[in-house]
Amino acid sequence: MTVDNPTVVMIGIFTGVFLVLATMALAVGLLGNKQKVLQGRLRRAIDRHQKKGLGSENGEKRSLFIKQEKSFFDQFVPRPDELRKRLRRTGYKIQFKQYVLTSLGVAAVVAILVKVIGGFGILASLMVGIAAGLALPHMVISSLIKKRLNKFTTQFPEAIDLIVRGLKAGLPVTESIGTVGKEMDDPIAIEFTKIIDDIRLGKTLDEALWKAADRLDTPEFKFFVISLSVQQETGGNLAETLENLSTILRGRSQLKLKVKAMSSEGKASAYIIGSLPFIMCGVLTLLNYSYMSILFTDPRGQIAIIGGLIWMGIGLFIISKLINFEV
Q1: pTM (predicted TM-score)
Q2: Domain 151-260 is classified in which CATH homologous superfamily?
């Protein structure tokens, strides 16, 4: 039995690819046990040292500092609070409404360009536009978050050393943290200044630190918060503890750089493999446009392009999982 309708074939291709991607996502979730173990340990530490902040009185006090942002798009976007949290982690004042409107604008522009320039059908143009509207803003936000967190992680051992020097000089912990906010560069200065502002507004040091840990969501800062929380309960030499933590974080950073250097060959291969089809397509289009134009104007060629892009994306996703190591 043959199907001559390109729309039916395209829907079948997208359905099959969706099932493949869902299966891969499930497999990654089942096999990614290391990250789950690390998050579980951090979660247990948070629950163990944050119990005193879960009472109704403290919950009411914390609610005074939370501005509930609501928007018309909340009913259409899944988990809007998580998206707002991602936008705050970029360090820029990106509003939820601006992000949603930008995504819709990108989807509309890409769909129009694909329809007008590429000559694709309406259904194919809408699918490509929706995919671009979902993927491109998400990739930009992820890039901003990664860049900011990398900068924070690089500066963080120096910030801990500054706190250690303040403690050895006789300053209390809050004053030492305030010194970091004054002396260090962004984003360290911004985050530690927010901690001091929360303390001045009535939060305890433990609450302000856990709020910052939830805002940053980095293992390095959570190690720092756990060290302070344990020291407040058990006592001991906090300066020595933080000094050892700074040494551990520097060693962890060096190990990450070593892993990055060892996996650079695999990344270079992924870049070459990913860019080669586009380079060859551009060269062939310049040399013989009439020969390549069939690929863009014929419905079967359009289906082949979309299917090829999807499978290339799957291949690059698998390669990225193979060359990225959790330290």
Answers
A1: 0.67
A2: Type II secretion system (T2SS), domain F (1.20.81.30)
